[in-house]
Design a protein that fits this description.
With 365 residues, the chain is α+β, with helices and mostly antiparallel strands. The chain has 6 helices and 20 strands. α1 runs parallel beside α2. The protein is globular, with a radius of gyration of 19 Å. The two termini are 38 Å apart.
Length: 365
Amino acid sequence: MKALLAGFVSAIVLLSSSPVGAVDDAGFEVVFGDVHTHTRYSDGASGSPGDAFAAARVAGADFMATSDHNFMLTDEEWELSKQQGEAATTRDFSAIVASEYWLTNGYGEVIVFGVDELRNKANFRSPGAALSRHQVIPAFLDWLATEGGLGIWPHPGVYGDLDEFDHWTPARDVAMVGVEIHNYGSFLGAPANWGVHDYEDQFQLALSRGWHLMPYATSDTHAADWIAGSPVRTALLVTENSPDAVLDAMRSRRGYATLDQNLAISFSIGEVMMGGSIDPAADAPVTVEVVDPDGPTITRVELIGAGGAVIDAETPAVPSASVSWSPSIAGPTPWAYVRVWSLADITGGDGVVAWTAPIWFEPAG
């Protein structure tokens, strides 16, 4: 299901003073997958991580992560998960093993990527002294940053208010790379609950607290229906399809959340692409391209700023299969991201189907 960006976006260079790195190669491809899934190793209905990866590949995913709950995994299951992920990875499919960490009552959870060690208790201070609720959260974030791991906040607000995205520091900002903007919610019995899983207000709140985050759309499946059971996808712009490249795209906030299985989006300001930062004094053109390979479904494309304000919008006279647009940014905004409306909305009508990572307006240095 991958889509090449050659010709779709040319000569993209990511230049950033935010927590993302530089990419010199313009040959990105879009890969589609899921980063929030469960197996019988925690509270999934059935199947091992190996079964999940095999099903995801058959269903057409380019990558998938299992994210079984840390407090349910045994050490043996964690090692088996990693072994099965390594065995399932091929030239055209990246199998990634993560874990969904429960931190403390009233806060919520974080999906952890790129940390080999499994921590089964929310105690992240040596030598293991008991921590209060208000100590364990920053201690966890510091542990994640120190380990070089990556974190995504799932279903924000469902199991606590995440302290309203408090506890920001530069190092923690590097580690926390995303937040779910849509959770398909199989754990709540989708499709009956479709309408309650969009968290754009939480995404906006996190951005306002200083976090540099990419939005994610996930299935959160607890059934043996990996990829096939959910139409939502996380799309990442990678230099190759490998677990390391997928994690690098996550680290660089290079991607978007979509409720359309193959919607292709490009968003750049000058030579800076989604996930990067540009000096607010720079006079650079904004370029947005959206393509739906399935036909004329796109009804509106918006550029969104702080507070959810619509900075500019493009509305085709009739639904379109593609939109090429150069929006204007008239006034100051700390960031901007693209939001796409389409007839392909999973609720069955015209609705929002995608949100890109922002581009931040930040002075260099």
